[in-house]
Amino acid sequence: MMLPMGHDLTIRNVVRSHPVPRADARIGNTLVEVKFGVDSVRTLRAALFHLANVVAEHPTLRAILVLADSVVSTERLGEEWGRAARLLRPDLLNRLSVCIEEGGRLRGVPHDPKPDVQAALADVVNRERRAGRARLM
Length: 137
Fold this sequence. Notes:
- By secondary structure, this protein is of the alpha/beta class.
- Helices cover 42% and strands 21% of the residues.
- A five-stranded mixed beta sheet has the order 1-2-3-4-5, with helices on both faces.
- The longest helix has 22 residues, at 115-136.
């Protein structure tokens, strides 16, 4: 584009504001996403990397992926977490966690959630489970 003499074109930095994405729940600054019946590593990876993208766009947020009624074992979850740790920046990885429902308890990777968070997560899972059944009826 040609500008007349004496005019100059200034390119301004445009900061896009990304709205906080919807999640199954929010506990403080932590988004909670519940996935039921995860039976493949591909689904687990897709959900984990989706949340990594969310926290990358929102530096003040954390995210927890909860796997309920899943056939993915705790051992396999640990292996997948190790793969994610090799691919994701540490600042993102430190704001992510994955929990798996096991025997009525939520086990977490890289660590189990604190008791108060575990209770809140259990409430979210139960609410989502009831809502899912209601949608199926």
